[in-house]
Sequence to fold (381 residues):
Amino acid sequence: MSDIPFNVPELTGRELDYMGQALRSGHTSSGGPFSQRAGAILKEVTGAQEVLLTTSCTDALELSCLLLGLGPGDTVVVPSFTFTSSALAFARQGARILFCDIEPETLGLDPRHLAELLDDTVRAVVVVHYAGVACDVEGIRAALADRPDVAIVEDAAHGLYGHWRAEPLGSLGRLSTLSFHETKNFVCGEGGALLLNDPRDVDRARVLYDKGTDRQAFFLGQVDKYSWRDTGSSFGLSDVLAAYLLAQLEQAESIQARRRALFERYHEALADPAAELGLRLPVVPEDRDPAWHLFHVLLPDADLRPAVMRSMREQGIATTFHYVPLHSSEGGRRFAARPTECPVSTDVSTRLLRLPFFNTLGEDDVARVVEALVGAVKAAS
Ligand SMILES: Cc1ncc(COP(=O)(O)O)c(C=O)c1O
Fold:
């Protein structure tokens, strides 16, 4: 029996053709025809005013921080249970971080904790849709109702094609960011995007994106020469990688349908054993359509996880844990505005186990993973 890896990025059909076209065209830097086409799809899916393709989601978060002008004296609220970049992008500019706990069901930012943390120094709140299931957007908006000065930065690294009610993930922040890292639903090796949902941000974002120059305005015929205007960096994605990304985005329907089927198969096959063994399966509230990014279970006891992972590895099945809580990490403590308590993040991070989840995972593989997991949990309990 062959091993079941944790993740396998798929070539869906036209990637090599499009990348070859990009290489032969002579336009291999950012902003070429493939970037335009990929950006147009992302605009249509999310309704964004403007899409800037970046070299990563981390990069898009860094651009968000520059655009909001955050730095020393400012505070950004970030969930403790997220990837380092959600906080790092702000910390590196000198802003301090206030780590917020998550809700136990969706594993998204807890609006009650957010309301307690808000003080006059808070200028932005980062929200994450864990696994592509929307966080409590209504609760977060209510907590921020009398703070129009606080920007929502939506880290939608897991969220493309998901919805909160009728609103697409990626449309919920003043600024929203995407990831096309090889582990995501749509990949191009390393890549990301900044979605601008407020038209007032567009002109300045284009300058910061392009080394602080008004080169984009020059290309659009708005100025007759371009020069240095503002802060910024080189955030653009090569058109060769945009070509890879476009081929993936063109297959969105098929990719999402296969991932949804996988998610549902895992959920169905694990429903009875989960009730028997005390495993918690992902919770999807009725008003949310997930983006089907990953599948996880919460083990009943943190002590089981090493043995379960070892047993599955011995059977050729790769599993993994996820985020180590940021509030208690060395970097998190260093960049925090003040220490905060995030008990749900701590608990979840010790019990969470991610199962193999990728476009080409077969039905038989899912059955094998489920059988191995159930056996491993029983043996370890
Ligand atoms: C929630 C979240 N934000 C940001 C990132 C960083 O994405 P990238 O690797 O594209 O910079 C990740 C990476 O997995 C993530 O999970």
In short: Residues 252-277 form the longest helix (26 residues). The pocket of pyridoxal-5'-phosphate is lined by residues 56-58, 82-83, 85-86, 128, 155, 157-158, 179, 181, 192 (CB under 6 Å). The longest strand covers residues 122-128. The mean pLDDT is 97.
